Amino acid sequence: MPPRGGLIRGGHPFVEIAVSSDGKTGTNYHALIDTGYSGFVSLPIVAASLLGLKAHTTSHYTLANGKQSEPIPHGHGFACVVGDPYVKGLIAFSQNVAAVVGVDFLTRCGHILMMSSTGVILLNEKEIEEALRKMAKDIQAHQVKNTA
Q1: Which of 2-6, 71-75, 80-84, 85-89 is least confident?
Q2: In the chain, where are the structural domains located?
Q3: Distance CA 141, CA 24 (A)
Q4: Are 39 and 92 in contact (CB under 8 A)?
């Protein structure tokens, strides 16, 4: 799977995602990547409603100021980086005006996040782990050859 890219806008990382109620067809959103958010995806209430997502539970979050949030409704849905297969997760219905992806999204989708001053790169973690194992094996073989 090729690396996926995103933008830095106003000092914040964004990536294009697709969100779906059925894992087949969905709507694309320009989503903020929030590594301080442990959740999967957060969508504005109106966007969640238009997708046909239904709230099944609520939860509270500890905010950056240490306070508890009001109850946030959540529903089952699917999301992915545009071009990747959908992954199932809990989608929060929030008062935010934009889509947000959290750490659960990155881990469920199997992505490693890299950021630079000019952009965002999401790499496939299995491919990176495989490449690192191969490099370690090649280094070990080279060291054994040089000591023989």
Answers
A1: 2-6
A2: 4-147
A3: 46
A4: yes
Beta bridge partners of 62: 68
Tell me which CATH code domain 4-147 carries: 2.40.70.10
Question: What does the alpha-carbon distance between residue 16 and residue 71 come to, in Å, rounded to a whole number?
Answer: 27
Task: For residue 123, give every residue at least 6 positions away whose Cβ sits within 8 Å of its Cβ, in sequence order, or none.
Answer: 3, 111, 112, 114
Q: For residue 104, give both structure tokens.
A: 């659960």
- Counting every residue written for the chain, the total comes to 148
Q: Which residue has the tokens 């545009």?
A: 82
pLDDT at 139 over 80: yes
The residue with greater pLDDT, 60 or 2, is 60
Q: How far apart are CA 44 and CA 18, in angstroms?
A: 14
